[in-house]
């Protein structure tokens, strides 16, 4: 077997071996994240889906899957996946921020604005989200961003 030439390649091989020894390990998330960071999106999605079949309530893995879809440009799959997390854990800050980014990229300013507002209900005073919402409202105008603007 050829030796991996990069640290990432070594990490991937090590994690694949770990998963082969224990297919029910939660190390699948690390493996999927390494694949994502390496731009190997199809492999990242496959590993996440297989792991989530074994650990369906592992929200962190579902967020990683949504992020992978986002980075791969599959915005509808990202919206669906991150929306699943928000349905089960509406206070999940990272999932909500990623969902708002997806909505924004899809041209759904009203959806993104509502997602940002939801984050602020759970995390009042989040300056980054306040700025993102303000920028969105400034760019979209109140009629496109929905009711309840500033």
Ordered list of secondary-structure elements with their pairings:
Blueprint (H helix, E strand, L loop, with lengths): L6 H15 L6 H10 L3 H14 L4 H14 L2 H14 L4 H13 L3 H14 L4 H14 L1 H4 L5
Helix pairs in contact: 1-2, 2-3, 2-4, 3-4, 4-5, 4-6, 5-6, 6-7, 7-8
3D architecture notes:
With 150 residues, the protein is an all-alpha fold. The protein has helices at 7-21, 28-37, 41-54, 59-72, 75-88, 93-105, 109-122, 127-140, 142-145. α6 (93-105) packs antiparallel against α7 (109-122) and α7 (109-122) packs antiparallel against α8 (127-140).
Short key terms for the protein model shown above:
150 residues; mainly alpha; elongated
Helix content: over 70%
Class by alpha and beta content: mainly alpha
Strand proportion, as a percent range, falls in under 5%
| Total of helices | 9
Rg (CA only): 18 Å
Q: What gross morphology would you assign? A: elongated
Distance between the termini: 60 Å
Average pLDDT metric: 90
User: Low-confidence stretches at least 5 residues in length (pLDDT < 50)?
Assistant: 1-5
Q: How many strands appear in the DSSP assignment?
A: 0
């Amino acid at each position: 077997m050829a030796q991996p030439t990069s640290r990432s390649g070594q990490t991937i091989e090590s994690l694949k071996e770990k998963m082969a020894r224990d297919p029910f390990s939660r190390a699948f998330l690390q493996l999927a994240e390494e694949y994502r960071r390496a731009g190997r999106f199809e492999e990242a999605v496959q590993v996440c889906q297989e792991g989530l079949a074994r650990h369906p309530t592992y929200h962190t893995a579902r967020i990683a899957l949504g992020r992978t879809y986002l980075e791969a440009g599959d915005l509808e799959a990202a919206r669906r996946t991150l929306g699943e997390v928000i349905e089960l854990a509406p206070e999940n800050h990272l999932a909500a921020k990623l969902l708002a980014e997806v909505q924004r990229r899809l041209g759904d300013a009203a959806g993104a604005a509502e997602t940002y507002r939801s984050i602020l209900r759970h995390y009042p005073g989040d300056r980054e989200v306040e700025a993102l919402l303000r920028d969105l409202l400034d760019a979209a105008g109140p009629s496109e961003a929905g009711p309840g603007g500033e």
